[in-house]
Hints:
3 domains; about 575 residues; 16 helices
Amino acid sequence: xGSNLILGIVIAIVVLAAVVYGIGxxxxxxxxxxxxxxEDRKKALFDSSIKEDIDAIKKMxxxxxxxxxxxxxxxxxxxxxxxxxxxxxxxxxxxxNLNEAFRFVKAKAAVEKAQKTMDDIxxxxxxxxxxFKELRESEERNSLxxxxxMDVYEEMKQALRDNGDQFGPAFAEVQKQVKSVESExxxxxxxxxxxxxxxxxxxxxSAEKHTFELEELMRKIPDEYEKLHKTFPEQLEEIxxxxxxxxxxxxxxxxxxxxQDIQQVHHRVEHSLxxxxxxxxxxxxxxxxxxxxxxxxxxxVMEREIEAKNYVTKNRKAVADYIQHATSNNxxxxxxxxxTSQTYTLNHNELAxxxxxxxxxxxxxxRNDSVDPQLEAHEIAYSEAQSFYKEAxxxxxGVESEQVEIxxxxxxxxxxxxxxxxxxEDLEFDLRNLKRLVEKQRLPGLPGDYLNYFYGVTDxxxxxxxxxxxxxVDMDEVNEMVALxxxxxSVLTEKTHDMLDEAALTEQMMQHANRYRHSYAEVKASIxxxxxxxxxEYRYKDALDEIGTALERVEPGAFKRxxxxxxxxxxxxx
Length: 574
């Protein structure tokens, strides 16, 4: 019993020892794996290309702020690669010792601390690497810009060598400025190499600025020199030749002194060449614009005179003929007006207007008589004569237009009289027809207001006849009276038909009302009242209202029925 217990205890101890050893072995192996991972990460950091980035950036010869930024990142990298990596090495060494001593809990904590340090280092190195990347890319862009400036500079030098004659008098000054830019670039390289980044940056910026300014200058100078050296001189030569030809043909130019104007342009070109020699390009550009404008004006003067001569040659006789034509027309129109004024009243100042035309025509003729000898003697510019001819056409066209208008109005007077005469006859005929229509109805009498209106229309027609029979007919008055007569007759016609309808309807109503005469006293009284109004007072409308009201009281709807029947059969009843 005792030996079995001892054996059990021994076995339990062995098992426990095996378990403890197994756990220890597992934890130690796990820590070793984590330690290896840290070692691999550390090696990867040391194998990174940061050192290569630093060497590449150093070769860029940075200046100014870029160099300061580079030094800051380089110091950051040195701090990481010394202090932080040393701290990490120490932590890894501690982990190895703890793991070998089977102090697994402390080893685990040390691993976690080392992993945190590794994370921080990786993060910081990532920032450094990104900083170097941005700096390198920035410097590459800057280098490209510097290279572009250098390329432009080289192109300018080449342009001066190959096409120096295109710069004319500006060549020496441009060459001087190119050498000045070259000096700045040389100074920049010297300062940058010797390690004076601040001044090197200032010199570089100045060199770049002067390079691109000079490039713009060299781009403009050939064009402006071409104008001054070739374009303007050739144009001025052509103008001088043209001017000489015009003088030989005895042209008169409408300017103070054309030859002097040409010389002024020559002087402007000479002054511009002097400004170009000093490379005052903005002054030259502005002056060349004005010079081109002055040359255009000189061309315009000559071209206008040549065109004006053609116009004057074609229209000289035509203007003279037009003046004679207008004079003849006006004379004939005055005769027509004199004859017409004996028969018709002229209400639109026709005679005064035609006399005014004569004054205008005579003034045009007077000016033409002055221009003709001046043209013959070559004392007037063709453009001035052209201007007069166009003005003469405008005046004579206006006169002829109004002459035609007045002539047509005269002819319309005769036509209008015939039309008015016919209208007067038609109105009198219509009035007689109305009178016969009324007489045909054999009414007991006519209302006073109707008679007054009838006689008024008759009087108006008589006035119209009198106006048409005057020695001098006033057609404005006649036409106005015709319109009034038409309106009066229209109203009289309406009044006549209304009166006849009222009388006929009254008779129809009274005939129908007689059937109630003995049955209704009020109907009898209305019949008697309507009878008096109809036969003695001739108030047909009042009579119709009287009998119609009475009939409607005893036989509702009778009035409307009788009225409808009457209008449906009026042609037979009236």
